[in-house]
Amino acid sequence: MCRLRCWSHLLKGTTIPVLVFTDHANLRYYWEPRKIGPHIAGYLPEREQYNIILEYKPGATNRADALSRRPDYKGPNPINDDVTVWPDHYFCDNHTSIRVFDMDSIGDNLDSRIKLAQYKEQPLLKKWAPTHNLSLLDGIHWYHGTALVVVADNALRRGVISLFHDHVTASHAGITKTLQLITPYYWWPNLKTFVTEYVKGCTTCQMTKVNTHPTHPPMFPITPADNARPFETIAMDFITKLPQSGGFDTILTITDTDCSKVSIFIPCHETIDSEGVALLYLNHVIPHYGIPCKIISDCDVRFISKFSTELCCILKIHQNISMAYHPQTDGASKRTNQTLEQYLRVFCGTQQNNWHAWLPLAQYTKNSWPSATTKKTPYDLLIGYTPQVHQPTRKTTIPSLEQRLSSIEEARKAAQEAQCKAQESWIKEKPRYVPFAVASKVWLEGTNL
Ligand SMILES: [Zn+2]
Predict the structure, then answer these.
(1) Separation of 351 CA from ligand 1 center, angstroms?
(2) Which terminus of the chain has fewer CB atoms gathered within 10 Å of its CB, N or C?
(3) Torsion sign, CA atoms 307, 309, 315, 319
């Protein structure tokens, strides 16, 4: 009563009953009709003011033990009629649905549940002990170092990870951090795999974290055609949004993909249409290399289709140019274009207003760089040598035409083989990608929506 009085301002006359945990065994004594003294009798009217129910908890399980052991509860017990001080309705069954929320008790509960689970799994734990180096640290329970062993119970294991991952103070740490947080306290075989799966499946993490390792679809390289002629298969791309220079703001890049990797840079406008591109091709490429057989591009397929029609129309020929539309999946051309774009961006960055005048030189530089894959410069594969500009002059015996032709052929073959090998390795590099199945749930990145 004394305790209730302390909180009377909160507890008196509530409409919802207040659940009181007590280990006061005397209260159970008064469950039955007893003889009471004036001391206890004095409490009864006061008790009526509280809407309380009592749940008895033995001392060992009651956290507020000390509070209920006050010496002033002892009082005289004169003889009078039996009175039921705490009738039945004041007591309730043990509550399982009501929990006192504080982190200590959650940890405790989890620990005791894990320890309890260990009792049932003694044979398994004994089997694990030698292989996993387990010990009875406190003489009763199994530990791995200082970490309590969690037996094969997925609910318990999820509870452990949830405590160290979902809790506000853990704030959804990554796999490694969550593991680091758990390992001093809990252990089970394949803990790492379990944590990895848990974190990967965590909805909050997936929603909020930036995907730094997006799984790209695998590349589908286009294998070069055997004995391809220069500019037989071409890749076309635009580099747009450049600063104005001589009235141009875009570069059309045309690359010979199957034979030499030679690129041609042509300044143009972002608004250029398929007819314009056809005219540029006619002026810059056809005089040297003729008409292409195949076009690879990630431009709109209709655009490319119109381009080829225009080209054939201008030339008054009936030829079918096959189009390959590869939105970001053609490894070979994408890599070429990436290097190209990177190079041109650096180059145009230093020639902000005058880059169009320097494009021919940029084209020379690009075509005289040896390819990482083929180890040959595009010029070598195209004409058998690299035209010299800044290179120191060396006295060389110029090979005869026949020698040069055979060496070009050899070099092109070797380059094609190297290309195929490199493409195979690109495919092998991407084993993580798993294509989506129909009806599977996916997260959409909102950046570009
Ligand atoms: Zn998470």
Answers:
(1) 48
(2) C
(3) positive
**What is the residue whose two structure tokens read 């853990």?**
170
> What backbone phi and psi angles, to 5 degrees, belong to 276?
-60, -45
Compute the distance from residue 431 Cα to the ligand 1 centre, in Å: 25
Report helix, strand or coil for 7.
coil
Chain position carrying tokens 């990895």: 196
Q: Residue 245's beta-bridge partner residues?
A: 248
3-state secondary structure of 216: coil
CB 263 within 8 Å of CB 362 = no
How many angstroms is it from 208 CA to the middle of ligand 1? Answer: 9
Q: Is 326 within 8 Å of 297 (Cβ atoms)? A: yes
C-beta separation of 254 from 266 below 8 A: yes
Q: Across the chain, what does the average pLDDT equal? A: 76
Q: What is the pLDDT of residues 150-192, one digit of tens each?
A: 987 888 899 889 888 887 777 788 888 888 888 888 999 999 9
Q: Compute φ and ψ for 239, nearest 5 degrees.
A: -110, 110
Residue predicted with more confidence, 326 or 295 = 295
144: CA distance to ligand 1 center in Å?
A: 26
Rg (CA), the chain: 41
pTM over 0.70: no
The pair of structure tokens assigned to 141 is 């329970």
List residues, by chain if needed, whose CB lies under 5 Å from ion ligand 1.
Answer: 172, 202, 204-205
Taking the centre of ligand 1 as the mean of its atom positions, its distance from the CA of residue 183, in whole angstroms, is 18
